[in-house]
Amino acid sequence: RGWTSLQAAERRVRSFSGSARVSPVYGPAESQQVVFADVCPLLTSLLDWYNVCILAYGQTGCGKSYTMLGPLSKDKRGDLGIVPRAAGELFRLISENPSRSLKVDVSIVEVYNDDILDLLANERRPAVSGPPWEAPMTKATKREVSPPVRSAEDFVALAAGSLRFRARRATRVHAGSSRSHLIITATVTAAPAGGSPGKWPCTPGQGHRGEMGRPAGGRASPGSPGAQQVREQVHAKLQLVDLAGSECAGVSGVTGAALRETSFINRSLAALADVLGALAEHRDHIPFRNSQLTRVLQDVLGGDAKLLVILCVSPCRKHVAETLQVLGFGAQARHVQRGPAGGGGAAARKPR
Ligand SMILES: Nc1ncnc2c1ncn2[C@@H]1O[C@H](COP(=O)(O)OP(=O)(O)OP(=O)(O)O)[C@@H](O)[C@H]1O
After folding, report:
1. CB 48 within 8 A of CB 219
2. Among residues 269, 236, 300, which one has the least CA distance to residue 48?
3. How far is the centre of ligand 1, averaged over its atoms, from the C-alpha of 350 (Å)?
4. Is 344 annotated among the ligand-binding residues?
5. Is 60 annotated as a binding residue?
């Protein structure tokens, strides 16, 4: 227990960020409900047509998947993570205004060894039938286009089904370590005025499903210059990201294929930090293209998207070096100031 109190930890986060804003710090026993309460307002921003990203970052075994998805065991439903709760909130908000004709398309991919693999693809083999690094090798382009998702239950079922195919492996540090970055994307599209869901100008797979390298969000509020856009077509993207954990190969004891995975994980996390650094410094060139991870996240890292980074850190003193590195990443994310939306910020969470 490196910190004497959560208040001290909060001060620590504040001093790292150099900002007057205080990041909430959640202790190991904090409920998922409390964490989600701080995340929830971003869902409203999504329906104001901001692109939104909620991203969990941290050392391996520190609770990223727990925070984003919940416990893997089915008997702990009360501990649902951010993904199922966000799905529920999204469809609740949509149902509040039935006159707005909105559709939700969902894609779920993992970035594994710098390859993008579609976890909703039809051709795939579950990880349990072979070594994890051989399981999800279907390329994103091979998938049949799925129909829009119509309820939170459908959304959650898609996510739960896809998780069976995510690459995992036991390491010395974590018995169920994720070996890939998981990216769940929900694209919300508004029908043009007078249109019906059957008359969408954008059908799934034709240009608004989060392809890399193109701006995705259109944003307008009634009466704003962009309101005309609403009458035509608007879409915004929610990306829920469970990153693979940063890892020291010597500590996790990986060799062979697992070591190769570690190397890709650490390189892609470094590429993400480089992008945030370049954005924070307002550099002309932002190196989005240096990794598949940053390519996939380009729309929600650049532009005026709202980005919330959840830092998962260990409460153990022996991991203090990794914890400081993770807090440094959060501080860097905080310095990214983009368009009028402003950044979402960073929060820190400690696992049990
Ligand atoms: N706040 C918490 N409350 C209860 N259990 C937790 C909490 N945080 C993490 N855990 C448990 O700790 C273990 C590791 O957590 P998790 O799998 O989320 O780590 P991770 O950061 O995603 O790891 P990796 O990067 O290696 O995939 C899991 O068994 C998880 O259920």
Report:
1. yes
2. 236
3. 9
4. no
5. yes
Contact in structure between 29 and 352 (CB atoms under 8 Å) = yes
Among 6, 55, 66, residue to substitute to test ligand 1 (most atoms within 8 Å of Cβ): 66
Are the C-beta atoms of 23 and 348 separated by less than 8 Å? yes
Domain range 6-349, CATH architecture:
3-Layer(aba) Sandwich (3.40)
Give the pocket of ligand 1 (CB within 6 Å): 28, 58, 60-66, 71, 174, 176-178, 244-245, 312, 351-352
Could you tell me which residues come within 8 angstroms of residue 159 by beta carbon, excluding any fewer than 6 positions away?
A: 69, 83, 84, 87, 106, 108, 184
Has the ipTM of the complex gone over 0.85?
yes
What atom in ligand 1 is closest to the CA of residue 28? 1
Which distant-in-sequence residues (6+ apart) come within 8 Å of 172 by Cβ? 251, 252, 253, 254
Q: What is the pLDDT of residues 116-154, one digit of tens each?
A: 999 998 555 433 333 333 333 344 444 555 789 999 999
**Atom 7 (ligand 1): residue with closest C-alpha?**
351
Q: How far apart are CA 253 and CA 143, in angstroms?
A: 35
Residue tagged 């969990």 (tokens): 56
* pLDDT, tens digit (0-9, with 9 covering 90-100), for 219-274: 544 444 444 444 556 899 999 999 998 877 677 777 888 889 999 999 999 999 99
Nearest CA to ligand 1 atom 15: 63
